Amino acid sequence: MYKVFGMKVSGNCHKVKSILTLLDLPFEWIELDTRKGETKTEEFLKINPNGKIPVLQWNDEINIPESNAILYYLARDTKFFSQDLLEQTRILEWLFFEQYSHEPFVAVNRWLLKFTSGDVDPQQIKNNHTKGMKAFSVMEAHLKDKNFFVGNRLTIADLALYAYSHVAEDGGFSLEDFPSVSKWLHNVKSYPKMISIESEE
């Protein structure tokens, strides 16, 4: 059985929980709170020296960090990836886009506004918002007349981008001007066994 070291409110961790659920793979969830330094302990740093979650563990000895790498590892021989080289490349394009042009702005503003106590830098929020909206504009243009990002079916490209897009409002992002993105979000949410991110109690 897989073990997942994660945090239930994290979009990156949500990706891992989503693909495991969609593939009906049993797993044990080990909840860690980054705000309490639980990923910086000596014990956890043996699992991931980078001190970040999620981490997928197999047989108590193989540890795979980085959410999109985990998506690939679990989905590579399933319908959520592809056997076609060009489609594989397109999926990878969106995984890289998510990590470089989407997550650093959408996820960070969500974290700052929803989970950080104390003052936040308004200029950082503004800059992140501008770049995050640009990412949604790119997604909107691509999704016009499409149900999903690659091959007109759900792939790990969708799972990666859905993780923080479906809670974008938490970071101050309105998707009212992105009808294709909104339609896509509905399509992903409606997919059988698809889950949404958990909230703190």
TrEMBL record:
It holds the Pfam family GST_C. Signal peptide: none annotated. Gene3D superfamilies: 1.20.1050.10, Glutaredoxin. Residues 1-82 form the GST N-terminal domain. One of its GO terms (molecular function) is transferase activity. Residues 84-201 form the GST C-terminal domain. PANTHER family: GLUTATHIONE S-TRANSFERASE-RELATED, HYPOTHETICAL GLUTATHIONE S-TRANSFERASE LIKE PROTEIN. This is Glutathione S-transferase. It comes from Leptospira tipperaryensis.
